[in-house]
Structures are given as structure tokens and as C-alpha cells.
Design a protein that fits this description.
Blueprint: E1 16-20, H1 36-50, E2 53-57, E3 69-72, H2 75-79, E4 85-87, H3 93-105, H4 115-118, H5 126-135
Parallel strand pairs: 1-2
Antiparallel strand pairs: 1-3, 3-4
Helix pairs in contact: 1-3
Length: 136
């Protein structure tokens, strides 16, 4: 049976999921009921299957809303008005799977986020807002 070619969104054509793994996010002492390694595994498996990127970073800032994930738009998403979406309290498989599904659908500017995920959107820290304004 011939396989169907799959369109892969790589590089600037795909959105990027940035996962905080700083002082509070990803810390088993702060969140002992969350399997942080498994969460990263789920995100990376979704990225491999759907063609978006996953990166980790040290500290994104809003530690009181850990685990924080930022979904950055693709170039097409930015052209359509999409902006980085900051998501807080991503602590379970359901929330992680919603991030995967939204990124797989194209992310900010391309696809609407699931409503339950949108309820977890948080304000980026002031430093991120200032950097964002400088780029425009």
C-alpha cells in the first residue's frame, strides 16, 4: 500500500513551542505530582508527528504560574496577526495534549486555540512585552 505524502511544516513555516524548565517549571520539588520529563516527551512526540518545533529554555519569568509554555506563531501566523501565546499552569496530560493539537493545527494566527487552553493564557512578563514592541 503506497504511503500518502505528508506535508511537514519545518522552520519558519511551523509554530514553535517553548517550554520553560527553569527554577519552578519542571521542578519535581515544587510540583511533585507532575511528570515533567513525560510532558516534554509528549510535546516532542507531537512535534515529530506534526512538524512543529519544541524548544526548552531556562526561565520564562512568571514562576507563580508554572508550568509555563509559550506557543510562538509561524511566519504565516505572524502575517495573519498571530502573537506568541503564553500559557500557564500546564500541569497534566490533557493540557499538554491541547498544546500539541493547537500547534499541529498551526498555532497562533493560523488556528484558534481550544477554549479550555485559552482559559489558561497568561500575560507575559514585562520584559517579554518590551522586547516584542522593539521588534515591530
Amino acid at each position: 500500500m503506497p504511503s500518502t505524502p505528508r506535508t511537514s511544516l519545518i522552520g519558519s513555516a511551523s509554530c514553535t513551542v517553548v517550554v520553560c524548565r527553569g527554577c519552578c517549571c519542571g521542578d519535581a520539588r515544587k510540583h511533585p505530582g507532575t511528570d515533567h520529563a513525560w510532558q516534554l516527551e509528549l510535546l516532542r512526540a507531537g512535534a515529530a508527528e506534526h512538524g512543529f518545533q519544541v524548544r526548552t529554555t531556562d526561565c520564562l519569568g512568571p514562576c507563580d504560574q508554572a508550568n509555563v509554555i509559550v506557543v510562538r506563531p509561524s511566519a504565516a501566523g505572524r502575517r495573519a496577526g498571530g502573537r506568541a501565546a503564553w500559557i500557564g499552569f500546564v500541569m497534566d496530560d490533557e493540557g499538554t495534549e491541547e498544546v500539541v493539537q493547537w500547534a499541529a493545527a498551526g498555532g497562533p494566527g493560523v488556528a484558534e486555540p481550544p477554549l479550555t487552553l485559552e482559559l489558561q493564557f497568561i500575560e507575559p512578563p514585562r520584559e517579554a512585552r518590551v522586547r516584542s514592541r522593539r521588534r515591530r
